[in-house]
Design brief:
With 97 residues, the chain is an all-alpha fold. Helices cover 66% and strands 0% of the residues. The protein is built from three helices and no strands.
């Protein structure tokens, strides 16, 4: 192969460069936002600043869109890792398992 191996420094904030990190971080933020909205919906008082922020029309819409984007991308990452990357990495140096 004519491709050269070049080390890429991915420490600190640079670790979020990969699509896998973006999809899992987006899924985490989506779960957190949906959990906060559900928790505040169950609480008794509705006159707090948190209700004004998280029960706003745009916050609810953002939570829904974020989940609709995060869930399929996370499933895509999981499938690619399980069926494409793991079998390749499990093969020995001569192509044997």
């Amino acid at each position: 192969s004519k491709l050269r191996t070049i080390p890429i420094n991915l420490d600190g904030m640079r670790s979020n460069v990969m699509f896998t990190a973006w999809s899992w971080n987006l899924l985490t933020v989506s779960f957190a936002l949906n959990g906060i909205i559900a928790l505040l919906s169950d609480s008794a008082s509705s006159d707090t600043i948190f209700h004004a922020i998280f029960h706003h029309r745009y916050a609810l819409r953002a939570a829904l869109i974020m989940f609709e984007v995060a869930a399929p991308t996370s499933m895509l990452v999981s499938v690619v890792v399980k069926y494409a990357l793991w079998p390749q990495s499990m093969k020995g140096p001569n192509g044997s398992s």
